[in-house]
Amino acid sequence: MTERDTYKTISKSTESILFKDKNSKFFGYAFPVTTEDDVKFYIKKLKKEHHAARHWCYAYQIGKEKTIYRANDDGEPNNSAGMPIYGQIQSYNVTNILIVVVRYFGGVKLGVGGLINAYKTTAQLTLDASNILKKTINVDYLITFDYKNMNTVMRIIKEKSLNIINQKLEMDCQITISVRKKEANQIFEIFNHLFEIDIKPI
């Protein structure tokens, strides 16, 4: 069985999506996030933007291989909002994403079943409107060497089409490369066997 080295996420925040049910309005938003601080930032922003709303329910998932997630009902009945939203994150198999559904109460109670349907549908419509893309899981390496070994290092980088994300080329040189996970061991071994060239994961 081959190890998975790709994941799906969204490239940018989506415009709000509106879903209505019995006068209640549900506004759906999706944001790319990589930390819980990102989550807090976007929720705070939406609470300012929709200060007259009744509920700001959300779910997020962060991580490429090991993931953490959270679902929040924000005052709605237990598991009627956060988990239906999270269910759509799972269904679309996306990560590093926050979905928030802002509810304006329309005066008519929807019941738990109605709420589950409304939050699930809003999350689904929001994900449908998002630009979902597949990315590779990469390993970053720092290569350290003397300037005289520059040609050797650059030749391998060119031959293997490696992605340079940082470089400092002076008397002692440092290059940071990003390698797709399934090719990482092979690339590490190539540099590791070279005399006077040091490679380490970062």
UniProtKB/TrEMBL annotation:
Q: List each coiled-coil range.
A: none
InterPro entries linked to this entry: Impact (IPR023582), Impact_N (IPR001498), Impact_N_sf (IPR036956), Ribosomal_Su5_D2-typ_SF (IPR020568)
Which residues belong to any copy of the Impact N-terminal domain? 22-126
Question: Pfam families per the record?
Answer: Impact_N
Family membership, please give it. Answer: Belongs to the IMPACT family.
- Please report the name of this protein according to its UniProt entry: YigZ family protein
